[in-house]
Amino acid sequence: GFEARGTIISDRWRSQVNLFYSEHRGEITRVPVRCGMKYTIGEQEIGNAPAICSKEQTFNQGRLTVKIVFSAKNGQNLLTAEDLKSICRLEHRIVRKCKNFEEYCHKANGTQHCCPSWSVGHYIALLNGNPSCLNIDETEVKKASSLLTICSKYYRDGTLKSDCWDFAKNGKGVGRCSQVPDTCTTFNAVYNIFHYLTDRHFLSDGSNSSLFLRYSLVLVPVKENEHFQVAIYKSYLKDDISDGNVILSGYELSKLKSEIFNELMLADLYLSAIAMLVIMFILWVYTRSFLITSLVGLIVVSSLVIAYFMYTIVLGIKFFPFLNILTSVILVGIAADDAFVYIDIWTQSMCEHRAKRKGPPLNEEERDQELISITVDTMKHASLSVFVTSFTTSSAFFACLTSEITSIRLFGLYSGLSILCMLFLMVTWFPAAVIIEQTVFSRFCCCFEFMGKLHETIFKDTMRTVIDKLVAWHRGLFMDFLPRIVIKLRYFWLLFFFLLATGGIVVATVKPGIQFPTSQDFQLFHESHILEKYSLKLKNNFHFETTRTSSFPINLVWGIKATDTGDQFDPYDMGGLKWDSNFDIASKKGQQWIVSFISRLKKQPFFPKDKKLGKICFIEDFFAYMMMNCTTNDRICCKDSTFPYNLTIFSKCMIQMQCQRIKEIQSVTDGAPLFDANGRLRAISLKFESNVPFTWSYDQADRFWKETESWALTEFNKAPPSANGWFISELRFYDLQKSLSKGTVISMSIALAMAFGVMLLTTGNLYISVFAITAITCTLGVTVGSLILMGWKLNIIESITLSLSVGLSVDFALHYGVAYVLAVDKNDRKSRVLFSMTGMSSAVTMAAFTTFIAGAIASQSNVLSYIQFGQFVMIVMSVSWVYATFFFQAICCILGPENNSGQMTVSKLKAGYKKLKACLCCANADLDHYTMVRKDDSTEVKNTVRVLYVKEDN
């Protein structure tokens, strides 16, 4: 699901892949039935490699599934016979001794013998006629070193290629690598050693001083199977392994990382359980209620289960990405936040009621009346806060549905549903539990005695004293010290945090700004994890990983529509082909346009000037074929036929040419005409390499896409309907980057707008809503700036966290804002801020602290998703608490509304509506004032007959 879906590039890519699948299944073919031959395009046969298994095709069309890197202890030179033999022994111990190795290994031509692994020792043995790398000696190593030193310059200047040796002839290929000595081309050994098996610094300048091998890589020719790779990892790779002076430095098995990641994602769920237990313990200490504490945990679990039911059964979504598991971390923090707020408001309401009554209720009736009154007051305030925090956070999650990336969409959907479920349970179960705690449980004295003894057992003697001191310090901090420094230093807080937010915004938008990842490798674990060592630290040491010399391919397709017919929420659903019913390249207009199109194509700046389309362009081949001299056997498919050709001649000659052309080996990705079972031409594709070097860089890929797409749209818009097509290239990673950039901004904007709307509806005060959004914006600036300075780049997890930052930042400012609006003394700003601080600062701080703890525990995982999410939660909780407590309250203390200023009451809304209506009526009247009616007496009179205008004759 880590891919864009529903974009132009995605739709075209999936349509192209479906075209390949249709050809693979035999639904369409590049070999017409009339050719009388069967030609099924599939994957290249791995087993057809030569006996020594040295072709690059041995590794599944260039996909190297198992890479193992070795180095010497203390950084010594590996280019010794003993060390190279140690590498061979280690490779044999790690891979070849693994169960079922012979089932998954690639085998040599016509034998049942597994191909040998590519290693420096293997090629030295091969060049010296040794049967095994375990038999090489120091003399052979020195001989090979001399050969490598001589041949290094040919590799560096690019004259030594990967195909200099012709395995079919067992000699140097005719016309290949003519400038390279024959000894440098034998078995392509020298090229493979430099390109694949040695580090980049090895003989980098061709001198003896650079004849130092720091890293040596081994490539194992095995099929790609996740179960086999996991077996290797768990049996041999989890522990340190060495042989003599050689140690295992790192490795990459193509599917291992994702498989281990899936296992660890589930295994590390215990961290969420620990976070929940810690938060519940804090909640129990805070509330001294086992019932309420247990209920919070039950609400979290129930919310996740109900949301999962709605997600899978009600909505029928099959794909459940691993990101959805992160919802539990957020849910624990929000549930604790709501519980702290409700309990604090309940306690304050009880104190206020008993202060008015001058004591507790004396009988059952008074107790019931008090309970009803306290519940009403608490629900009036707490339910509002709980609703707003839950609704704004769920809105931030649901805003992720605007993303074009499947995993982000589904994460936003599941998380949003979970929070709404929790909201429903919090406003139904939780108040009921508090009432039960105050009524039913109070009648069971034994229970209270037991709970009292339990508290005494846990918090007795010294611990009880410490707890009492902490409670006293807690009251002094939140009831006196914190409100006092906020009010007294309000101008300082306002200026300081405004400047800090400005700095964060500059960091986020100007320099260094939000960066895109420069590699398509998706990091799954912490950088210290062994499974990330190769991609993060070792990969760039090898030429084949860093010197991609290819350019952006351009694939032009006609005959199918670029439409994604699959399920947008299921990345495994590729959909099917949608044929273009208007396609008819055999029409005369189609032929004329395609000929002129090829001519214009060659003049484009991205077309390689020094190359011809050649055999990859069957269209040019066809028209060249039609210009051949006629023979007695063929008077139709020759130059006697007049261009544009009629339908019969075009179809007959296209099939005839293709029957001859198809005898040559073609790749499944080459351009070709595609026919259905009846021999009807259904689609054509044209593929060639552009002269734009391939890169993962967003800016360069963006420039290539925009320029090429602009040209293609211009061309195809001018094409007749029978020749309309589209273009695609290798741009999926760019599409992902583009979707992340656009989707993050859109989801953050929607979340901010929703937060403002909800704030305005719940507080009913325009000024408070504006101040809160200002504080949230500043929080976002500091949070995003901090993450960028920590080295974060915009990827899947980062995009989600930025989208969620709005929902998680709004809670604390909203609690303070609601309390400010509900303050009793509305005439004085300082009094309202004091009321807001004393009433909510304790609950807000505890909520921030518990969520911070959840983030800190999650960051102890080995899985990068948990680590980054935990870091984000810690940062956003800290920053949002600081800005809500100091910055937002400082604004309210200086500019906050007094009395009912800015309050959006129903009467004010009605009055505003009447004024707006009156203004619109006046505007219409003004328009009527200048509307004239022509009369027969050459006068124009305003139709209200208030003014007479006389038209003067010229």
Automatic annotation (TrEMBL):
UniProt GO molecular function: transmembrane transporter activity
Keyword vocabulary terms for this entry: Glycoprotein, Membrane, Transmembrane, Transmembrane helix
GO cellular component, one term: membrane
InterPro entries: Dispatched_Hh_regulator, PTHD_SSD, SSD
Gene3D superfamilies, A to Z: Multidrug efflux transporter AcrB transmembrane domain
Location in the cell: Membrane
Transmembrane parts of this sequence: none
UniProt keyword Calcium present: no
One Pfam family cited in the UniProt record for this chain: Patched
Keyword Cell inner membrane attributed: no
Bilayer topology annotation: Multi-pass membrane protein
Domain of life: Eukaryota
Any one Gene Ontology BP term: smoothened signaling pathway
Record family assignment: Belongs to the dispatched family.
PANTHER family: PROTEIN DISPATCHED, PROTEIN DISPATCHED-RELATED
Entry protein name: Dispatched homolog 1
